[in-house]
Structure to design on (699 residues):
């Protein structure tokens, strides 16, 4: 396999004070072990040379199909995983920059309150033996963020803010519905006044009517608390709705980065084009049947990816060069970064926006 | 030959639990026409899956079909049809077992849990074939491979001997569809068949199901909560809320001229890929606890157009057009009917 060190598409961005977090050439390889001695047989390259940046106050979307490594990237940023290599540069409140990827153990503690996570499954992410108050207060205690006499007030205040009745805070999670539990999860993430919140499929498990409520809530909270979101999802309609810029991943690699509307109307990577074409349009008069791009075969195995561009076996524009040479992420102008050899030549179809 | 393949009338399915009775399906009328696709839409817990499971008499305990009819109208050859009321059949009887998997087949949401991990894909498809036909093992195996080929599984002669865990989610769902279609059913019930799949896989599976529908002239009953999928594949749509069909019509009417406040609110609350960013308009509140159903129209506590009578009177079915029925008080007056007596 060709290992190409790619120039980070955003090399100097961190000099710009508006960038909150920059990920450079992040790699997270999980060892595949065999036998009782755990002999390493190979590596699953869940994230392979991922680079992007997040600006203060924006919502960056991270999309891709299951197994593309989007969750892994999110977990590396909150340092639930220790990345194999790469940099995660984080700008602190006092403007100094720290590389989270290099820190270990207790050194990470001060950052745990700055970077928080909202999980997908509101059923398994809350401890059923703790009351709502304990669940949220635990965060305050661990991070020593409030004096004991202030805790109750802070939890009450935040619960109210996320649309829950504070009277219910002595109840256990089972007494709440999926949407309410997700609100508890949000409160748990926000109680530390974080600067970056990673929403990992935060609305995917919810019903349509509840999903809209939670999406609106997330947007309100972003404005009120001055939050920056990394929004991980596989749902392109939700991403379209909430994100300012979007990163598309395929088998551990970033294939395209662009502003929201630009990516949807003018995709430059064949994989993005196929994704857009697969999304059902909510208009029975505009059915895409037949006109839709069919991706043949399955998503590549991240422990044994194909040579060259990982997408080439399923790409309908693939040429000889794609089979041997892996494309790097490069700037094609207009804040649009693409990892495709033929990004400029291809004329790809995007989503046609309704007037 | 009548157009109607399955006609459901006044179907009620209740669950008798320790905490009380849950009226999961509470008087449902549905019509499935030959060779068409009916989408049953609703949020989780609205009873859409239970309703469809009753078509095969596989409603699990403590659920019971209380009343109603499920009239199944299969062909018996040379243009003749038979009329069977599925509700009257014994769940373990000979007759329903002949229908299950042969006349009416089902594809489930979770392709991992609905295939047995202990048997190969081929074994499981062959079981269904041999159960419903006189084929010997060799012929059944050949048909299984044919079916796997039809649903677009590569190298079907090899995959037929694989266990389900070796297949990806999309491939497993294809195998499930191959199994469901192996006896050439007249009706395929698909219970959220693409919800667990990625969008690109979903697109392929939907195309596949529609192709096969045309090929076999099957009726497709598609259960989903995803309005995008509905817009993409349905001919007719029934919207369900707390055990009732609140609105049913053809797909164009539902998306462009829906009348029930719930349908309208659902359509407003979904983010659309083709729209500019704007604030979503969610439905306030949440689906009520099934043990504490609101009186009157079950949707009235969340309805933005509720009138004072809504918490007292259960709306009756109002026929707005030949193919457009709605259960809402707002239209009962409109249709020139005096408001129904306070219902039971």
């Amino acid at each position: 396999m060709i290992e190409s060190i790619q120039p980070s598409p955003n090399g100097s961005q961190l000099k710009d004070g508006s960038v909150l977090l920059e990920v450079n050439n992040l790699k997270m390889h999980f060892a595949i072990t065999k036998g009782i001695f755990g002999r390493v047989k190979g590596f699953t390259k869940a994230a392979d040379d991922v680079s992007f940046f997040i600006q203060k106050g924006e919502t960056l979307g991270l999309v891709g199909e299951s197994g593309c490594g989007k969750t892994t990237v999110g977990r590396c940023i909150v340092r639930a995983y220790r990345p194999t290599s790469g940099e995660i540069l984080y700008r602190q409140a006092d403007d100094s920059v720290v590389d989270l990827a290099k820190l270990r153990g207790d050194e990470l503690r001060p950052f745990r309150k700055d970077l928080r996570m909202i999980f997908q499954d509101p059923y398994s992410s809350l401890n059923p033996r703790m009351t709502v108050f304990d669940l949220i207060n635990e965060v305050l205690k661990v991070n020593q963020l409030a004096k004991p006499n202030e805790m109750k007030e802070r939890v009450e205040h935040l619960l109210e803010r996320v649309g829950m009745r504070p009277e219910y805070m002595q109840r256990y999670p089972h007494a709440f519905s999926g949407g309410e539990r997700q609100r508890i999860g949000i409160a748990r993430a926000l109680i530390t006044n974080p600067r970056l919140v990673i929403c990992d499929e935060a609305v995917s498990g919810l019903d349509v009517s509840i999903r809209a409520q939670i999406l609106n809530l997330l947007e309100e909270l972003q404005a009120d608390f001055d939050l920056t979101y990394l929004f991980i999802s596989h749902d392109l309609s939700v991403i379209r709705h909430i994100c300012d810029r979007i990163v598309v991943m395929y088998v551990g690699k970033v294939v395209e980065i662009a502003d929201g509307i630009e990516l949807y109307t003018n995709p430059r990577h064949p994989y993005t084009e196929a994704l857009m074409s697969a999304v059902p349009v909510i208009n029975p008069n505009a059915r895409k049947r037949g006109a839709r791009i069919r991706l043949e075969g399955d998503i590549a195995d991240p422990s044994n990816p194909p040579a060259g561009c990982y997408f080439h076996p399923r790409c309908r524009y693939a040429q000889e060069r794609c089979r041997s040479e892996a494309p790097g992420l490069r700037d094609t102008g207009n804040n649009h970064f693409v990892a495709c050899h033929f990004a400029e030549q291809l004329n790809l179809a995007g989503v046609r926006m309704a007037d | 030959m009548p157009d109607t393949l399955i006609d459901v009338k006044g179907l009620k399915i209740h669950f008798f639990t320790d905490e009380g009775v849950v009226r999961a399906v509470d008087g449902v009328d549905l019509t499935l026409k030959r060779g068409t696709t009916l989408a049953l839409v609703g949020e989780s817990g609205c009873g859409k899956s239970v309703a469809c499971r009753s078509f095969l008499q596989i409603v699990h305990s403590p659920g019971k079909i209380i009343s109603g009819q499920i009239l199944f109208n299969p062909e018996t050859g040379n243009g003749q049809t038979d009329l069977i009321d599925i509700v009257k059949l014994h769940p373990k009887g000979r007759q329903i077992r002949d229908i299950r998997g042969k006349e009416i087949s089902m594809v489930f949401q979770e392709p991992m849990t609905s295939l047995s991990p202990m048997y190969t894909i081929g074994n499981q498809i062959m079981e269904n074939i041999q159960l419903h036909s006189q084929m010997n093992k060799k012929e059944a195996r050949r048909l299984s491979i044919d079916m796997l080929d039809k649903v677009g599984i590569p190298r079907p002669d090899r995959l037929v001997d694989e266990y389900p865990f070796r297949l990806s989610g999309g491939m497993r769902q294809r195998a499930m569809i191959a199994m469901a279609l192996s006896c050439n059913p007249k009706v395929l019930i698909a219970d959220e068949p693409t919800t667990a799949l990625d969008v690109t896989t979903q697109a392929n599976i939907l195309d596949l199901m529609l192709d096969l529908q045309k090929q076999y002239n099957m009726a497709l009953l598609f259960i989903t909560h995803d309005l995008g999928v509905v817009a993409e594949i349905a001919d007719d749509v029934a919207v369900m809320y707390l055990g009732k069909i609140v609105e049913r019509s053809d797909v164009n009417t539902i998306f462009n001229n829906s009348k029930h406040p719930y349908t309208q609110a659902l359509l407003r609350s979904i983010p659309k890929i083709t729209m500019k960013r704007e604030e979503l308009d969610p439905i306030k509140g949440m689906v009520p606890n099934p043990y504490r159903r609101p009186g009157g129209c079950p949707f009235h506590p969340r309805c933005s157009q509720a009138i004072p009578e809504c918490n007292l009177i259960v709306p009756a079915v109002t026929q707005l057009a030949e193919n457009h029925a709605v259960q809402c008080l707002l239209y009962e007056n409109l249709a020139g009917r005096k408001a129904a007596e306070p219902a039971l």
